[in-house]
Amino acid sequence: AAMVLFSGAALADSSNLYVGTDLQRSDVSGSTNVNDLNSVNIHIGGTINENLAVELGVSDSANVKVAGKDVRDFSTTVDLIGNIPVTYVANLDLLGTVGAVYTDTKIGPSVGAGLQYHLTKEVSLRTLVKYEDVANDKIGSNHDVKYTAGINYSW
Known about the structure:
There is one protein chain. With 155 residues, this protein is mainly β. The protein has strands at residues 17-30, 36-49, 52-61, 64-66, 69-71, 74-85, 92-103, 106-118, 123-132, 141-154.
């Protein structure tokens, strides 16, 4: 994943659309020799209300060697992202995600959790940990755990 979800009265007048990017570090498991895979995610989303958003993202990795061949991992995600404001920390939200990931002709479910900090009404930083239960034949993985950190901009 990942998004500008606005919480509290101070942010309630914000726009419904946002774009963002995340740097991702993946732990893949399965028959692959690839232990870690770095990628970039670009996403666009819209808030449904102050506690729920929908987001569409694409991720692309650097080339990795698998069985002597250069392989690139590309995936598309769609997520519902919920947020709960942290009462004692201004501008901080707890995030939860549920969605689907499409990679290399296969579709699987994904779930995640994280934090988001609003620097301004337009800019926020977020971190997520996402579990994607989908096989990727190109890199020989059964599932993927992604650790992400990124920035979002809304208008």
